[in-house]
Amino acid sequence: MSRPRSPIIIIPARMKSVRLPGKPLAEIAGAPMIVQVWRRAVEAALGPVCVAAAEPEIAEAVEKAGGIAVLTDPDHPSGSDRIFEALGKADPHRRHDAIVNLQGDLPTIDPAMIRRVMDPLEDEAVDVATLAVAITREAERADPNVVKAVAAFDPAQGGGIARALYFSRATVPANEGPHYHHIGIYAYRRAALERFVALPSGLLEKREKLEQLRALEAGMRIDVALVDTPPLGVDTPAELERARAILARSAH
Question: For the whole prediction, is pTM greater than 0.90?
């Protein structure tokens, strides 16, 4: 139960984005966004990569690029449910002992950040690992769209990994000191993912609209690894243009 030896990266993707419909197929630097995310996952070199597609056109785009995709129920309520179904299809013989859930709207993510999410699983007591970055823009502290990870990072001990005590859309903890922006990339031990998707929704999960609180309410342990900068999540046309500019520059 130390660090998993055989992880798989699964990228959930669906066409029905509220703010940017069809975004998995939005063109960025000559390829659909989902293909760019798949490429970053492959570059992380953690293990095989599979896209959990809600619609056939997403799977077709990934397969055309040389990747692996599986079709999943389009009506899944969450990305974790989608990756769990995909895991059963992609790995029926249970060869993989950990699953990295990588969001399908991070086309410019540094592959090192994907690798970083595995680090908390060095501790055998940790069920789920995730990432956070220190907030530097004052407006983000009060922004409910910026989810805060409440964890006691201790500079005296390196400060790089800490246990998650809570996640909130509110500005917590109170008083002076740093706040941390949660980055929604997860690494689950396989048994932890199986347990998580079988749990009923939690009261705090429903109140905050944060799925990870279900795990904390059930007594599961989530540890958070710090990274230096947040990845660019593409949810709006303006963010799509930023991603196009970034990848256009990196291509030259």
Answer: yes
Chain centre to alpha carbon of residue 120:
15
| Consecutive H or E run containing 181 | strand 180-189
The encoded tokens of residue 65 equal 């690029």
- Asked whether the beta carbons of 22 and 28 are under 8 A apart, the reply is no
Which residues have CB under 8 Å from 240's CB, separation 6+?
20, 23, 26, 28, 33, 234
The predicted model gives 37-58 an average pLDDT of 97
- Asked whether the beta carbons of 167 and 212 are under 8 A apart, the reply is yes
**pLDDT for 21:** 86
Calculate the CA 53 to chain-centre distance.
15
For residue 252, what pLDDT is reported? Answer: 62
Residue 206 in tokens: 């429903």
Residue 159: pLDDT band by 50, 70, 90 thresholds?
A: low
Rounded to whole angstroms, the Cα distance separating 76 from 250 reads: 35
DSSP codes, 43-96: HHTSS-EEEEESSHHHHHHHHHTT-EEEE--TT-SSHHHHHHHHHHHH-TT---
The Cα-based distances of 151 to 101, 187, 244 in angstroms read 21, 17, 34
pLDDT digits (tens, 9 = 90+) for 225-238: 999 999 999 989 99
- Average per-residue pLDDT for the chain: 94
